[in-house]
């Protein structure tokens, strides 16, 4: 696993074995993730979304604690996966990093609790599966406007974005911060330390 520019985010680049039958790869290995993150990934929920080209989901995040760590891959088609540091006080606050996830290279991304997550479907029927460390709890889930100019995420040109009503009405990062919705870097690092301590 390779660490990305945002603390708490990694990309897994598996070795893909191909022959005349097709291909095989390991897309999730708990011991490797634990060695990388310093704590285990407690699987509580697995999700699958199928999206038309241009669908934009996110930027989503959950309250910390407990937050929701995610491990994400694309098993059909391709998406641009985006991780956003929304932890107030973080050295990389407001920074984002994009990774193409597709059914050719089979990359996966892991993001720690407290980070924002979004993706845009680059193909029709783009199928994303993701493992979550905690189940979905509506009262503790939030969103940020994916087109917030303060984030300036470089979404692919030439795609008409398709958003849910909820995502289209999401607050800007500044509005979420003023509303006390964002996790703090200090709270998140304490949470990570507690997870490492078991």
Q: Could you please describe the fold and organization of this structure?
A:
With 198 residues, the protein is an alpha+beta fold. The protein has a single domain, classed as Sandwich (Jelly Rolls). The chain is built from four helices and 13 strands. It has helices spanning 30-37, 165-168, 173-178, 185-197, and strands at residues 2-3, 9-12, 17-19, 22-24, 45-51, 56-62, 70-76, 78-85, 96-102, 108-111, 115-121, 126-132, 141-143. The strands form three sheets. It has a six-stranded antiparallel sheet with strand order 1-2-10-7-12-5, with no helix packed on it.
Summarize the structure in short.
The chain has 198 residues and is an alpha+beta fold.
Describe the secondary structure blueprint for this structure.
Blueprint: E1 2-3, E2 9-12, E3 17-19, E4 22-24, H1 30-37, E5 45-51, E6 56-62, E7 70-76, E8 78-85, E9 96-102, E10 108-111, E11 115-121, E12 126-132, E13 141-143, H2 165-168, H3 173-178, H4 185-197
Antiparallel strand pairs: 1-2, 2-10, 3-4, 5-12, 6-11, 6-13, 7-10, 7-12, 8-9, 8-11
